[in-house]
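Input structure tokens:
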């Protein structure tokens, strides 16, 4: 299976629409549709991690069986999927917020922090 097919399969299993998933990860619905239908074949590892987090699965479950993701080196895969359960829940909650609320949370988190 391709990553797109896996995204669609796990999304449907989670009972959410493509539009809802797109909103949760911060892309427009057309982009999510292109991911699912293989029209965008090089989904960044960070986006795969976001999608997996919202769906409550490991990133490897999305890339399993798709040889075009061999560019994801093992340390990167491990970094994405080795988050603690609590971190995954926090990410899922964050990506479930509206884009406006996500921006507000980002501003709060960045207040007073040096880069």
């Amino acid at each position: 299976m391709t990553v797109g097919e896996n995204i669609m399969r796990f999304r449907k299993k989670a009972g959410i629409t493509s539009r809802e998933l797109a909103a949760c990860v911060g892309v427009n619905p057309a982009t999510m549709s292109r991911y699912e239908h293989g029209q965008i074949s090089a989904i960044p590892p960070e986006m795969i991690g976001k999608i997996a987090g919202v769906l409550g699965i490991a990133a490897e479950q999305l890339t399993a069986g798709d040889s075009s993701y061999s560019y994801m080196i093992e340390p990167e895969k491990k970094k994405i999927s080795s988050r603690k359960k609590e971190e995954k829940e926090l990410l899922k909650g964050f990506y479930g917020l509206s884009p406006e609320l996500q921006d507000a949370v980002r501003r709060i988190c960045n207040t007073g922090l040096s880069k």
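The CA atoms of residues 81 and 95 lie 17 Å apart. The first helix runs from residue 3 to 14.
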